[in-house]
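Thread: Putative zinc-finger domain-containing protein, structure

OP (GT): Posting the sequence first so everyone is looking at the same thing. Length is 255 residues per the record. Can we get the structure tokens written out before standup tomorrow? I want them in the notebook alongside the other entries.
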Amino acid sequence: MSGSMMGSPGPNEHETVGAYALGILDDSEATAFEIHLATCEWCAQQLDELAGMEPMLAALADLPGTGTPAIGESLSAKPSPRLVEKLVDDIGERRALKRRRSFYMVAAAAALIIAGPLAAIAVNGGDSGAGKSDEAGAKAAFTTISDKVSATDSSTRVQATVAMEKKDWGTWGVVELSNVKGPLKCSLIAVGKNGERETMSTWSVPKWGYGIPNAKTEQAKAPLYAQGGAAFQPNEIDHFEVMTFDGKKLVAVDA
């Protein structure tokens, strides 16, 4: 294992965490380490990460020529210090790799959350300067993206056009929604060919609606534009759905 940290008692006490995790210290050694553990945050963290190593050591008994104790005897027989150190280092490296992978997945998810539901933008909504800028950006993006698919639901008469753009992380999309009356809360959902569903964006529809052809106000006549992202690549998407929060499908659009 690695050496001691600044301000810690010394490397030997830190290295004992591996033997303690494996359960191979005698009573006096275990008691001494527990006294140290009570004041050492580093060892406490290492012990938490190394929890469960003892069964792995026992499993090594099935491998020929390891010289490790049989399963059920690992607590009473001590493996060599070199074997203990190697096991601790191996597990530490694997768990560090797992933490790095988890970090990247969380970062990617955060990016999709920002690009997805939190990026839902209604062109007619909001009064702030930033909101108006975002609204104009959503409509402009819809205009510039060439890959578009459209559909009109025969029952609800809601019309939707989804503009898609391939990204390294998945698919960026902008939906244009018309002939939808509120009040409603809706989501744009990408449905993969594997059956998985990913919410790309969410928004609210006011009582006067969006894209209503015979509306009395220009605000209600204008369509809604909402943008967001999905982890699917475009060729992995089967179709898009606009769903209300209570589970009603307003329109489905083949990808």
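GT: Both are above now. Quick notes for whoever picks this up: The longest helix spans residues 81-115. The longest strand covers residues 159-167.
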